[in-house]
Amino acid sequence: MQRMGQIIGLNADKVEEYKRLHAAVWPDILAMISACNIKNYSIYLKEPENMMFAYYEYHGTDYAADMAKMAADPKTQEWWGVCMPCQKPLETRKDGEWWAMMEEVFHLD
């Protein structure tokens, strides 16, 4: 299992919409997340800065393939189409990232 942390901004005028969307995530999206070996997935929001932190655990053996599978899914693309306009990616993110990946510097079970 691999623990993953990501960060992204949220546009101030989209906070309520983003909360509404995530209060009722589409069932097909939840199924795809599970099918791509992601478990224990949470997104946190810090207001008023409007920064979001995502944490999940990857239980598969080929992260790149699972992420490609998710990205190719038409329903996931539709979901991203409504969520991404709410988000404000960090300018310092790496090429190819939307949510910026974070380095784990401490963990205690």
Question: Can you offer a commentary on this structure?
Answer:
With about 110 residues, this protein is of the alpha+beta class. The protein has one domain (about 1-100): Alpha-Beta Plaits (2-Layer Sandwich). The chain has four helices and five strands. The protein has helices at about 15-25, 25-35, 65-70, 75-85; strands spanning about 1-10, 40-45, 50-60, 85-90, 100. Strands 1, 2, 3, 4 and 5 form a five-stranded antiparallel sheet that branches. A hairpin with a 4-residue loop joins strand 2 and strand 3 (about 50-60). The longest helix is centred in the middle third of the chain and has 10 residues, at about 65-70.
Name the helix and strand elements from N-terminus to C-terminus, one letter apiece.
EHHEEHHEE
Looking at the overall shape, the CATH architecture is 2-Layer Sandwich
Please write the CATH class name: Alpha Beta
Q: How many β strands by DSSP? A: 5
Report the sheet with the most strands, covering strand number, pairing sense and barrel closure: 5 strands, antiparallel
Mean pLDDT: 97
Percent of sequence in beta strands: 25-35%
Q: What is the CA-CA span between the terminal residues? A: 13 Å
Tell me the number of structural domains.
1
The helicity comes to 25-40%
What class, by secondary structure content? Answer: alpha+beta
The best one-word shape is globular
Question: Could you name the ranges where pLDDT drops below 50 across 5 or more consecutive residues?
Answer: none
